[in-house]
User: What shape does this take?
Amino acid sequence: MGKMVLVGKCWQESKLLWHIAFPAILTAVFQFSINFVTVGFVGHIGVVELAAITVAQNVVEGFAYSVLLGMGSALETLCGQAVGAGQVDMLGIYIQRSWIICGATALALVPTYVFTAPILRALHQPAAISAVAGRYTRWVVPQLFAYAANFPLQKFLQAQSKVWAMTFISGVGLALHVALNYVFVTRLGHGLFGAAMIGNVTWWIIILAQFTYLVSGCFPEAWKGFSMLAFNNIAAFVKLSLASAAMLCLEVWYYTAVLILVGLLKNAQLEVDIMSVW
Assistant: This one.
């Protein structure tokens, strides 16, 4: 009898866990696939373009993405504590505080996008790949700020178990991304520039849809509008964000290091293209 009760409790807990985890996994897959789709369409343009976008996404964008995800991860801890303590009204303050910190971090990361070409050349990457990657990263600077807005929104929604809305928005965004790439990159031939602009549009559609959901009145206790209280205790929030970012970055930067080393090989374009498939 006792074993049956234990099994029943485990089953109930598992259902509750997967109710949040499954849509969160789908959301991550959909959002990751946005860049994957971009690489797929750019791969039909040329070998250099494929190698360049692989380096740009996995070295420069990957660096910025991991930093911003880490900085936004502090919100996960604080929102969970606030919900557990019954202080749901603090969630709106926390997300605004996280936007401020992530926005400032994104602004500090802009030079890595603007000066991608000389940075890659300093890392002894091929000149042709560095030049094309440098142009691409300058075009996708708006995506950097989309990441800064996206991660706090995700943590806010996850803390209140409103994950399916985020999954639906990301899924629609991915479908739209595929359609726009097919029209503008494949059919109309706008090339790498078109792929970059479509990426910007897709990410900001996702952000605006999530923000609209946030302010639509679905969270009357958690979101009460913008407040100057968001600027309080910024220093403590930054410390927690930096600790989260450090742990996450150490986990994901190994692939960036591998890609840079691959760029030093004799036939770098081919080797980097192979890495894009991996």
